[in-house]
Each structure stands twice: as C-alpha cells, then as structure tokens.
Amino acid sequence: MWGGIACESGSVRPTLIACSHGTSSPEGQAAVAGLVSAVAARLPDLDVRAAFVDVEEPAVTAVLDSLHGTPARVVPLLLSAGYHVYVDLSEAVAAHPAATLAGALGPDPRLARLLADRLHDAGLRDDDTVILAAAGSSDPRAVEDCRELSDALGQLIGRPSPAAYLSAAQPRLDAAVSRAREEGGRVVVATYLLAPGFFADLATRSGADVVTPPLLLPGAPAPAPLVDIVLDRYSR
C-alpha cells in the first residue's frame, strides 16, 4: 500500500509528485530542486517529479495530466496545510482518479528538531528570546499547524518560542520582534521556511539579532530528516 493506493506484487509504485509553492528566487529554486533530487536518490527505482502550485512550472495539474491516468501521490512540500493544500491541490487531485494527496510536511517533531539544531548552531544563549517565523496563512488550520510546531520547538529548547508570521496572520514578525526587544536581551528568529526567497528575505529584515537560515540551502545537502518526512508522507 503506497499513498492509499494498493499495488499488486511487481507493479510500479505510484509516481511521487513533489509539489512546492514555487519561487522566483534562484537560490530557492536550487534548494528545492536539491530536496527533490535527494528524495529521488533515496529511492532510485521510484518515479519522482517536481511540480509547483504557483510562480514556477510545471503546474501540478500539468504533471498529473502527463501521467495519463497512471497512479500518482502528490506530496506537498509545504510546512503547513492551508489554502494550497485544502483547495488548490485537493481540486487538482480530485480531477485525477488515480492520484492521491498526502499531508503537508509539518507539523512534525523532526522539523522542530531541525529548527532547534539551527538555533544551537547559531549560538543560542540561555537568555535569548526566540520567535518562530512562519510564512503565514489566512486558513486557521495552517496557523494552528505553526503553533503546534512552535510548542514542540519550545519544549526542545527549554523556553517559549511563539510563532509570528510574515503575511496573512497575526502577530506579524516585525511587531513580535519589536515587543521582544523591549524586554531586553537578544532576539533570535527561528526561520520556519522551506527555502530562500521572498519570505526568508523579510525574516532577515525583521530587526532580530540573529535569524537562522531556512531549512534548505542551495549548495548544501537536503537534511536527511526532511527527506525522511517526504517519503513518510508518500508512503502513508
């Protein structure tokens, strides 16, 4: 059983369509491509294809059409489940009976651990105030996903790490950083974004003393736990 699709012995497993948001940032494009390549390298006999919700091509509908009704599993390379998962991708998959839709990558305790490791690599101090920076969504389910992840991160680093957002939801990151600054001590932002791009640039301009990098970086190997999560979503 792969992605809710029963496979007979010896049959080909469903194509894994790794669908990210899309970005105009060359660094972000390279970083996401590196993740897709790492997923494909982990299972070389699996057909792995990249697709995008917005900005880049090919669109997920085009990739599904190109498979001509053969089984596929769309894995959103998104850290929370909002409009793109519940509407865009759900509608695309519904139009293709042989396709199924996996859950978003987050929340997942392995993502919290990656963020905690990034904070420690950045020199986290005992008296630092930590804020988790997420893209933001108008869908309350996506906001709750981010809050759940921020709670998990807080448990790992032994202090609150409330979520703040770069768009759509409240509180906004720059306002949260300003409020934290009034309490004294350093303000450290844990960047809960998949790759470099517009939102990552906004996070670096938030006024924090330290801003950790996104989960993926161009030229660096995709973190193994992130590859694990993608494959877990595919196989559920």
Automatic annotation (TrEMBL):
Gene3D superfamilies listed in its UniProt record: 3.40.50.1400
Entry-linked Pfam families: CbiX (PF01903)
Keyword Metal-binding: yes
InterPro entries the UniProt entry points to: CbiX-like, Sirohydro_Cobaltochel/CbiX
Organism listed in the record: Intrasporangium calvum (strain ATCC 23552 / DSM 43043 / JCM 3097 / NBRC 12989 / NCIMB 10167 / NRRL B-3866 / 7 KIP)
UniProt name for this protein: Cobalamin (Vitamin B12) biosynthesis CbiX protein
Gene Ontology terms for molecular function: lyase activity; metal ion binding
SUPFAM superfamilies: Chelatase
Keyword annotations of the record: Lyase, Metal-binding
